[in-house]
Amino acid sequence: MMVSVWRYSHLLFAIASSVFLLVASITGVILAVEPISNKMEPYSVPGADELSLAQTLGHINENYGEVLAVMRDRNGFVSVTAIVEGQNQTFYIDPFTGEKLGDLIHKKPIFQFATNLHRSLFLKSTGRFLIGLASFLLILISISGIVLIAKRQGGYKQFFAPVVRENFSQYHHVVYARWALIPLLILALTGVYLSLLRFDVIPNSNVSLQVDFDSIQEEPVKEYTQFDLFKNTPLSELRELEYPFSEFVEDYYIIRLKDREVYLNQITGEVLAEEKYPALQVMTSWARVLHTGEGSIIWSIVLGFGSLAIPFLTVTGFIVYFKRPKTKIKNAYGKHESEYMVLVGTEGGTTLQFAQELHKQLLAAGKKSHLALMNAYGHFKKMEHLVVVTATYGQGEAPASAEKFIERVGKHRQRQAFDFSVVGFGSTAYPNFCQFAYEAHEALNDSANSTALQEVFTVNDRSFEAFNNWSDTWSKEVGVTLHLEKPKSTLGPKPESTFKVIDKIELPEDDTFLLSLKNLNGSRPVSGDLLSVIPAEGARERLYSIGKVNDTLVISIRRHEKGLCSNYLHQLAQGEKLTARVVDNRNFHFPKQAKKTVFIATGTGIGPFLGMIQENVKKREIHLYWGARKREAFNLYKDYIETARREGKLTAFKTAYSRENGEKTYVQHLVRQDKTLFLDVLKSKGCIMICGSIAMQKEVLRELQVLSKEHLGKDLSHYQNRKQIKMDCY
Ligand SMILES: Cc1cc2nc3c(=O)[nH]c(=O)nc-3n(C[C@H](O)[C@H](O)[C@H](O)COP(=O)(O)O)c2cc1C
């Protein structure tokens, strides 16, 4: 079934049941405290469960003249109903002595109130029905939730693999749901069962034993302590024992054990009738225990947390859904009259915003453009240029609005020639970066009358800058002039900080420089976070990876001849101030737990690693592989690397130069060369971090994939899902 169907069902069930579930969950949390508070009462006597019934009854009978019944509850507390001083009384006793320990626990008013609200909302049968229905919907919510998590994680095997964090609500909704789903499903199933029982849909089945009074014997007379059943049954097996009503042989002991009911001749000790409880009765008993947590502190706590998760999951779930950018598609031109078709594959809505901006600017440039979802692919009579802008989901799968795209491309032939271009939106934090965009490209390439204008263009983490770069080249090729504006909701409310330039080290021969900045206020970045700089009023933001060295932020920048931002940063003199925002990039932080880490960088990609190495105070094993064109490029980082080596913070440093005399080495060659180390890092739960160009990232991943498959028998995604491979490439 399609993801969208699961998602909408999940949402629909949640909306339909949310109010009732919220009431049931809050009262459920209160009720989870009741069994815990009961269990903590001092009526449990250690070792008493091993006593036989004969011993227990002996102790009880010594203390009380007329005993009517003995009970053992799920907490293991033993109580007696007896006539004491002419009164019928029930109280807890010590099975070793028979002495009274205390009066029966009375339900506290708060628990009584919560129970009534929980069971029937104070609406009697109607309330019971509504709560039963909400429990049923909770089963459906849990099942659809399990499927959705499996889909987003890339399969059931990956169910508990780390979740990529996109934002607070999305991350915590998935992380908590994974743990809460099991108790929630149990609560929901048992809740429905108990409701069905209440409405007699499931019959209440009890044992009904028959005694053959004609064959009752009065001999041989035995002392009750000598009855086989009493001698051989431990107290732990008892639920309830009713004493005979009179001394006549026709009255007998009624004994309810955990698994059966037995009637016992009070004179001879002979078993008069016996029956195991029917399966339905056992199920009912289990349903009660599992639903209430009675008798188990641990299970009550689990249920309490399960109930607590409901309001949390409801709120975060609704935030995830309702915070999605909602952009309606409006078209001035129909699909058969437009020469430009912009098709979008989105799930969260952000890709649609980018596509919409492109569509808007095409219209502004006087072109007939039509915007639609990828699932709407069909025969477009006048299409000359097709742009597909698509996100990727799951394990490199199509987003909901593009699930039928490939099939439809196969089905619908365009009769006129058209060119196409595919832009993939994705995140390098996921194993199959922009995978679906490549598949969409393939499908279009194979279709009739199509010409690929370019290779797939990938955009990491909704970078407007990257999208704009693509738009520049594409618009030149098709001959339009476009000026895209950044979609508002992708800006995010990041606070600005002021930074003072402390130092600038240059390497003129390589056009790169290192800028050291001091944060004068605002956020506290970590190495791997990004610095967002807007070089001029109205200009686009540029992102630079931050290395944090001794409270100073170091960014490594390549200067481009006409680069607005790199030149702006380059002209900053020591002491000058710069306003910029820090962007949290938590998928690229140093893995503090990993014993071994390998950093792979090319060019200025080394920047964040300079900080991470410096922070390695525990002197964990770190290997740095760095690639550049020429050897002299290293001079910029020489001091940092040599100090780190001296201080024992960097275990090994290897370089790959691609334009040195005769030598043409790339970092991916070093990966192959040092495969033992890479395999060891992957096997020992270490981490490989990659920073630099996308081209280098692809090559390195290809090498790692081969190693992983050939030597470890696993797809590389296995390690990527466990966050053992982190990437920040551009
Ligand atoms: C559950 C989930 C799975 C994802 N899987 C991938 C993936 O396999 N490859 C990838 O490049 N990006 C993946 N992404 C990232 C999205 O493609 C990216 O965030 C995109 O910008 C979302 O666009 P949208 O808001 O239009 O749906 C995934 C995101 C989520 C939430």
From TrEMBL:
Keywords linked to the UniProt accession: Amino-acid biosynthesis, Cysteine biosynthesis, Flavoprotein, FMN, Membrane, Transmembrane, Transmembrane helix
Keyword Isomerase: no
Cofactor: FMN
Gene3D superfamilies recorded: 3.40.50.360, Nucleotide-binding domain of ferredoxin-NADP reductase (FNR) module
Flavodoxin-like domain mapped to chain residues: 340-479
GO molecular function, one term: oxidoreductase activity
GO cellular component: cytosol
TM segment ranges: 129-150, 175-196, 297-322
InterPro entries reported in the protein's UniProt record: Flavodoxin/NO_synth, Flavoprot_Pyr_Nucl_cyt_Rdtase, Flavoprotein-like_sf, FNR_nucleotide-bd, OxRdtase_FAD/NAD-bd, PepSY-ass_TM, Riboflavin_synthase-like_b-brl
Protein name as it appears in the record: Sulfite reductase (NADPH) flavoprotein alpha-component
Organism annotation: Pseudozobellia thermophila
